[in-house]
Amino acid sequence: MAKSSYVSPETAGRPGQSSDSLTCVPTPSLAALPIRRLTPRDLTACADLSEDRGWPREEHKWGFLLTAGKGYGIDDPDGGLVSACVVTEYGPQGRPDLGAIGMVLVAERHARQGIGRRLMRHVISAMGPTPLTLHATPNGRPLYEELGFKATGRAEMLRGHFRPASSAPEVATRAATAEDLTAIVRLDEEVFGPDRTHIITRLPAFTDQLRVAEANGRIVGYAGAWPNMDTQVVGPLIAHDTETAKALIASLAAHTDRPLRTDIDVRHEELLTWAKEHGLASVAFNSVMTHGIAELPGDWTRRFAPLTVAAG
Q1: 3-class DSSP state of 195
Q2: Which residues contact 107 (CB under 8 A, 6 or more apart)?
Q3: Among residues 58, 33, 26, 268, which one has the least CA distance to residue 156?
Q4: What phi and psi, each to the nearest 5 degrees, are found at residue 61?
Q5: Cα 16 versus chain centre, distance
Q6: pTM of the model
Q7: 92 and 86 in contact (C-beta within 8 Å)?
Q8: Is 173 helix (H, G, I), strand (E, B) or coil?
Q9: What are phi and psi of 212, to 5 degrees?
Q10: Are 156 and 285 in contact (CB under 8 A)?
Q11: Comparing C-alpha atoms, which of 128, 132, 121, 48 is closest to residue 82?
Q12: Cα end-to-end span (Å), the chain
């Protein structure tokens, strides 16, 4: 069973100090270690941190997030990172409408010492009045609630080899072209809410597949599939209706031999039932949480799956 690299820190005790018994030189307190901005040069250290927690390295996703978003981390005096996370901002540069937090990780040797809480408080402070969202595991949810996040929805992770239907889908789909990007950006903002141009324009390079659905000569949906270890992650998935979403998933599955993985809003019951009938199985549930906003903006009825739970 594939695991998401998104790991929520558990609530924990207080940071402590240790000393070298031979030299009596104290090791810096974890609470004193500075939090800094990460850059794409920290890709290997971030992947090492994922691996330290027993999760896939996911270098492809880390590279994308560190380029498209803002990374925050704490350096370990002994090398590597104590903790890390990424915030992806949406909307006008400098005054974003929404920030999505993901990839929250604390090294195993420093777990349960309040590091995750400290890093999250720093991020919340750095983002100021900007509304925030994240996907939380059951273990991480109590910490986020303590920090003021509220659960406003749920997503179900599915994984498996897709079994194609016996009949062809009624909605026409095709590979996206460079000429489609303007229409995709326009549709995405209409459905998602905040402007995601800086994300959408990176999709052709990030995804293995980027496909669109058309009706009456107009793009009514789009979806990407990108490599994540041994799976193809389906996301983002935006579609006019459930039939369009089905057609896009089926078209992505037809062009890969890998199992699919995706996170679908549980309110899309028909799509979830259909996906399970075609070979995908439930893996886990995550809570969709928000801070500073009652619910996510946009039109959830046409927003079926995020790019990744780490970026919304």
Answers
A1: coil
A2: 49, 52, 53, 76, 80, 81, 82, 83
A3: 268
A4: -70, -45
A5: 32
A6: 0.88
A7: no
A8: strand
A9: -125, 155
A10: yes
A11: 48
A12: 22
